[in-house]
Design goal:
Blueprint (H helix, E strand, L loop, with lengths): L10 E5 L5 H9 L3 E4 L8 H8 L3 E2 L5 H8 L4 E5 L20 E6 L14 H8 L19 H20 L4 E5 H6 L7 H6 L15 E5 L4 E5 L4 H13 L14 H6 L1 H13 L3 H10 L5 E2 L10 H5 L4 E4 L8 E3 L11 E4 L2 E2 L15 H4 L11 E5 L4 H11 L3 E6 L6 H4 L15 H6 L3 E5 L5 H10 L5 E4 L5 H4 L4 H7 L4 E4 L16 H8 L19 H20 L3 E4 L2 H6 L8 H4 L21 E5 L6 E5 L3 H10 L9 H6 L1 H12 L4 H10 L4 E3 L3 H7 L1 H5 L4 E5 L3 E5 L4 E3 L17 H9 L3 H9 L5
Helix pairs in contact: 1-5, 5-21, 14-21
């Protein structure tokens, strides 16, 4: 299987707009040879440097020149409204069938809303992100730094490499709405399994006892969910400071009781946090292996000791930048040699814009055609909770055989924690959370506390292509399964490690949850309303950002046909989604921030831009006007103050415009208003709840996004669907999540040749379940 250790980089033609800038940037991060047809002149210096460093651009005057340029590409990455795409024929096929052609559109290439237009706010609203953000007494708002766009871009890069791994040039359809809807953790799942949906809570997680707390001089993210040790060690720390209150009473040792009385526990923890400086809390928490972190602004990322020690920052050099270049956040994993220096976007010179020769067809492309992109690949899944299972879920969707090793002795909270079951009265085999993120997998239950269990685990390695793990650093090493040992068992193995901050560096032992990573990366800091405290997020966005990065890293190695160790830092993956935030203090942020406490959704680039009340309790419509054409279209529908169309004129009367628009939307049906405005070309969408997505979204329904699988305990149940839709090697959801140990005998017979007598002995010894 293994081929050239120094393969020719992918040639990528970048036809993206902001909807998929992140996808092209991630491909730069794996060393692709990326050429644009636009100079990025419309962006500010910080945004242009961040999104386009490491690329070249070349002018294209007509369709013939574009076709000639595309003829040299392995991958064409294109994004924007369907009406603006240049690479599709009238019949919907690609103009460049020799290449992998990834098309990212707001709602996909099919369905009744295929022609709708968006900005990040409207997309985040249509996909369900906006509903989850903000204070309970304020407007819903999306995560900062255009996370909806960045999520779509990440799935575009994943779709590109899935098609490359398949060996079949083909069109890949990415719906940005579906990318967002697949990144909500429980927002839709709670409705599917329990007939309810989470609501915005100012950063208080619904199913994990974590939130942002005020410290003596700032803010920290943390809590007391996780293993029993995390509770007892936090309680010990609080007691040492005389801040434990009545939590030392025996009754608080019961996790279910603590959960029921969470407000009381939170108040005592809040008093504890207020008595210490934020940095001191974070330092002591790392020493005690507790999941707490200081909430830091993104401008501190370039001085972050963990990021600097791992050389994960990128230096960008070139015309218009300070002498010696500027430092920016880097990439989620070390695909490129570190430290990394990239030239700013510049015009290509010479006869060809491509730096590298065309790729020859590799071994994978000479194999028999696949029905799915990852047919023939087996993954040993040693992950739990969300970040790791979200990785292997995506591989399983595209044909990989996922062998998930788990046990009652190392309890995955998504199976065993009552708060994650979603459906009242369910049990570990019936957990709604687990069911969604572990479909298309086989479960092998091994007690890894026993030497015999660890021996069997090692014996599975030669039969697998990839091992994915999200243990704390050092666990695999103690089991004799570090990368060097795995290579002795299987020279071609790919090991994907997903430690919170990476396996090396001064913070390598830090225990992290999604909220602590958001705090470390600067994301949590930017969730604050003007003049208010940071609110954090109420869903595991950071877990899924890291997951998408791990998927891309694994596909990169599979596409190259070689093994390797992906030392993925979830912190670095999160930092890589902060956009140009680290560059703005040096290069300028462009227009001033127009947000106010009353209007937290305002934008420097659009007026009006916000969410407006519609009929129903706590129902909202997202509307954005970015140019004069959209403004004139909006004013044909509703009478708004001011006839002038330019942004500056609208900005001068923004309060009046917002008030008039809110008065018009209030009391009207949000879905009908969205259709009315979109028919006029105005970006608009209902701020969707989980119920809206599952039951009332005609676009998701038309594209069959929620796929029903028949689970042996729950019966037929909808699951979140596949994002990357490959036309020649489509993925699919084939089997529901496994019961604990459902396939232990099947897998151990098939891969290790064990007999029924040997399996019975392992069960009697407590090794297998």
């Amino acid at each position: 299987m293994r081929t050239d250790p120094n393969p020719t980089p992918l040639r990528v033609l970048d036809l993206t707009d902001e909807l998929a800038f992140q996808g092209a940037r991630l491909l730069v991060g794996i060393g692709a040879d990326v050429v644009r047809t636009e100079s990025g002149a419309g962006l500010g210096p910080a945004a242009r440097a961040h999104w386009h460093a490491g690329k070249r651009w070349t002018a294209v005057r007509d369709a013939a020149e574009l076709d000639a340029l595309a003829a040299g590409a392995d991958v064409v990455l294109e994004s924007g409204p369907v009406a603006h795409l240049r690479g599709l024929r009238e019949d919907g096929s690609s103009r460049w069938p020799h290449a992998v052609h990834v098309v990212v559109t707001p709602f996909g290439l099919t369905g009744p809303r295929r022609d709708w237009v968006v900005d990040d706010l409207v997309l985040a609203s249509a996909g369900g992100m906006t509903w989850l953000g903000g204070r309970p007494d304020g407007q819903p708002k999306p995560p900062p730094r255009e996370q909806a766009f960045q999520t779509a871009g990440a799935h575009a890069a994943i779709g590109a490499l899935l098609a490359v791994v398949s060996g079949t040039p083909q069109l890949v359809d990415i719906s940005a709405q579906e990318a967002v809807a697949a990144t909500l953790e429980t927002a839709a799942l709670a409705w599917i399994h329990a007939g309810r949906f989470p609501v915005r809570s100012g950063g208080v997680y619904e199913h994990v006892a974590h939130q942002i707390f005020e410290a003596a001089d700032g803010y920290v993210a943390g809590g007391y969910s996780g293993s029993p040790r995390m509770w007892t060690d936090l309680l010990t720390w609080m007691a040492e400071r005389g801040e434990a209150g009545d939590l030392l009473d025996e009754r608080w040792q019961d996790a279910a009781f603590r959960w029921r009385e969470r407000p009381h526990v939170d108040e005592i923890v809040r008093r504890f946090a207020r008595g210490l400086p934020a940095a001191e809390i974070a330092l002591e928490a790392r020493r005690r292996a507790l999941p707490w972190a200081e909430v830091v602004p993104p401008e501190r990322l370039t001085t972050h000791p963990q990021l600097r020690d791992r050389a994960s920052l990128v230096t960008i050099t070139g015309e218009g930048l300070p002498e010696g270049g500027v430092e920016d956040v880097g990439f989620p994993w070390a695909a490129l040699p570190r430290p990394v220096t990239l030239p700013a976007l510049h015009e290509a010179d010479g006869d060809s814009p491509w730096h590298h020769p065309a790729r020859e067809q590799g071994q994978r492309e000479r194999e028999r055609p696949k029905s799915r992109a990852m047919d023939g690949v087996r993954i040993l899944d040693l992950t739990w909770v969300l970040a790791g299972p979200y990785v292997t879920k995506q591989f399983g969707e595209h044909g990989a055989d996922i062998v998930k090793v788990e046990s009652r002795h190392r309890k995955d909270p998504t199976r065993f924690a009552p708060s994650m079951h979603l459906r009242p009265g369910s049990d570990p085999d019936d957990s709604g959370y687990f069911i969604n993120f572990n479909r298309n997998k086989r479960s092998v239950a091994l007690n890894l506390r026993t030497e015999e269990g660890r021996r069997l685990l090692r014996e599975l390695v030669p039969h697998c292509d990839v091992v994915v793990e999200n243990f704390s650093p050092g666990v695999l090493d103690r089991w004799g399964m570090d990368y060097a040992s795995l290579r002795e068992l299987n020279p071609d193995i790919i090991l994907v490690s997903m430690a919170g901050v990476g396996r090396t560096g001064p913070w390598r032992k830090a225990v992290t949850f999604a909220d602590t990573l958001a705090a470390m990366s600067g994301l949590a800091s930017e969730t604050r309303d003007p003049g208010g405290p940071p609110q954090g997020l109420t869903f595991g966005l950071g877990d899924m950002i890291a997951s998408n990065s791990a998927v891309l890293a694994t596909l990169d190695l599979l596409a190259q046909g070689r093994g390797g160790h992906v030392d993925l830092s979830q912190l670095e993956a999160m930092a890589a989604t902060m956009g140009p935030a680290a560059l703005e203090p040096v290069l300028g942020a462009g227009a001033p921030d127009p947000r106010t406490a009353e209007h937290p959704n305002r934008s420097a680039h659009a007026v009006p831009h916000g969410v407006y009340p519609v009929a129903g309790e706590d129902r909202w419509l997202a509307v954005s006007v970015t140019d004069e054409t959209q403004w004139h279209a909006l004013t044909r529908v509703v009478d708004l103050p001011g006839a002038a169309a330019d942004l500056a004129a609208r900005r001068s009367r923004e309060d009046e415009i917002d008030a008039a628009l809110a008065a018009w939307t209030r009391g009207q049906d949000g879905h009908k208003l969205a259709e009315l405005l979109q028919a006029e070309g105005v970006p608009a969408a209902v701020v969707a709840t989980g119920q809206d997505l599952v039951e009332a979204d005609e676009q998701l329904a038309a594209r069959g996004f929620y796929t029903v699988l028949d689970h042996p305990l729950t019966g037929p149940v909808p699951h979140e669907g596949i994002v990357a839709r490959l036309t020649a090697t489509p993925g699919g959801l084939d089997r529901p999540a496994p019961l604990l140990g459902q396939h232990t005998g099947e897998v151990l017979r098939e891969l290790l040749g064990l007999t029924d007598e040997q399996l019975a002995a392992l069960t009697a010894q407590g090794v297998a379940e």
